[in-house]
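Good morning,

Attaching, inline, the backbone tokens for the sequence recovery test we're adding to the shared suite. The designed sequence is right after.
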């Protein structure tokens, strides 16, 4: 296999992904590595608790070395989707207009210490001390809707600790393929709620660049530090991967927003104890020069995202509560897009607000409610699918979950396994500019309301 890339970050990430063995053991890799249950790192997975955030900051390398198995795992997500109104022509190729069953995705993971439990055998005792500071999160996913395989969230880290001016510091460097993937809080987009959703239901067309706009299409490097268990700093940069490399990894680069040069990424957060929990607030963002649709003939656009977030989380007896708020404001200068006729305006703005409350009782019964809003400048060319030329969408996501194995970790024959059964209902007040009542184009926001059943099985 020949790889066409002069991007060292891309080469590093691809190497990390290819290191993952194809044999999959029936044990979640992090739980096996730590000899712990899922509840030690999560409330309702994948929502992290304080120890889970520390595990991530430590580069996925903390270990109790309980077993001599590589850090591999599997995830299956069978689902059922019902939308309020049928989707004429089918929800996707090979699916009906409504009431569709699917295997939403199947994912293979190599995640934990990079060399698993074998570092000492490979490098000796002294070498293993350094080798065990390298961690990896490598996910390869089969998309049951698109019927194809591709690389998914992938990250390679080196992490260590130090003392600076009598302050404890956890620090590290990373290379990954999704901005905010490295963040330890679930307020950042890559691991934000909703953690999963239907690929067979309509969704708002507008979205900010940092919130999934370039996921898996980029390679980035950066460095972070958590000082005195309070102050978090992260600086990095991202660049779009080459066409041939993306195709090799299972992606279709056609029509992508291409980052040219290096797009700087920044993150600062303050985290403090608060009663029986912790309270975090911070800011993050990314600034990118981009070619629309990978077309460089008219120069480049300029997109800058500013994010603000806060999270309060506490655990008391059988109760786990997490409250999160995230606001992303995007400033868009369309020097190239306007010249190419992709936008009517020379500049636009977009904002994305998410307010989320998640509750878990007895580590078993979960309930989450989220209000979301996307809004910004009207631009008929940019939002050509909207009858009003507006990106406005807002509504609620309601979810109830049942995690029968969350405390026990599954039967002895299938230890450290977990499963989450969820029912999720998405309600739209506005959808791509359309409101509750029929407008001139015959659209109704609530036609897109979605009832979604899912089993999230990890083993």
């Amino acid at each position: 296999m020949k790889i066409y890339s002069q991007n060292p970050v891309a080469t590093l990430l691809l190497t990390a992904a290819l290191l993952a063995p194809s044999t999959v053991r029936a044990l979640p890799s992090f739980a096996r590595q730590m000899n712990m249950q899922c509840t030690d790192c999560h409330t309702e997975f994948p929502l992290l608790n304080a120890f889970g955030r520390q595990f991530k900051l430590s580069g996925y390398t903390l270990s109790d070395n309980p077993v001599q198995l590589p850090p591999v795992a599997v995830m299956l997500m069978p689902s059922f989707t019902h939308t309020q109104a049928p989707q004429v022509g089918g929800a996707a190729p090979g699916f009906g207009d409504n009431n569709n069953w699917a295997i939403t995705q199947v994912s293979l993971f190599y995640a934990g210490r990079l060399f698993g439990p074998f570092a000492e055998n490979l490098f000796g005792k002294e070498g293993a001390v350094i080798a065990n500071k390298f961690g990896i999160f490598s996910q390869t996913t089969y998309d049951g809707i698109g019927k194809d395989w591709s690389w998914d969230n992938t990250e390679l880290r080196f992490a260590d600790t130090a003392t600076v001016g009598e302050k404890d510091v956890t620090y590290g460097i990373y290379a990954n393929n999704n901005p905010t993937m490295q963040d330890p809080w679930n307020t950042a987009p890559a691991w934000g709620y909703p953690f999963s959703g239907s690929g067979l239901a309509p969704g708002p067309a507008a979205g900010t660049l940092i919130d999934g706009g370039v996921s898996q299409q980029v390679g980035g490097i950066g460095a972070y530090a958590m000082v005195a268990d309070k102050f978090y700093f992260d600086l990095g940069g991202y660049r779009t991967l080459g066409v041939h490399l993306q195709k090799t990894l299972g992606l279709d680069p056609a029509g992508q927003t291409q980052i040219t040069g290096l797009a700087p990424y920044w993150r600062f957060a303050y985290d403090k104890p608060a009663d029986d929990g912790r309270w975090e607030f911070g800011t993050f963002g990314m600034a990118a020069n981009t070619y629309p649709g990978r077309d460089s003939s008219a120069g480049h656009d300029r997109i800058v995202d500013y994010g603000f977030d806060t999270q309060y989380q506490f655990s008391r007896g059988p109760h786990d509560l997490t409250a999160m708020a995230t606001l992303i404001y995007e400033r868009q200068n369309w020097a190239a897009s306007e010249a190419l006729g992709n936008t009517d305006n020379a500049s636009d703005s977009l904002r994305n607000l998410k307010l989320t409350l998640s509750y878990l009782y007895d580590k078993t019964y979960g309930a989450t409610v989220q209000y979301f809003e996307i809004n910004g400048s009207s631009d008929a060319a940019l939002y050509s699918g909207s009858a009003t030329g507006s990106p406005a969408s807002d509504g609620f996501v309601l979810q109830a979950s049942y995690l029968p194995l969350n405390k026990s970790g599954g039967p002895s024959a299938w230890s450290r396994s977990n499963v989450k059964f969820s029912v999720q209902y998405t309600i739209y007040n506005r959808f791509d500019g359309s409101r509750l009542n029929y407008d001139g184009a015959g659209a109704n926001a609530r036609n897109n309301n979605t009832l979604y059943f899912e089993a999230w099985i990890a083993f």
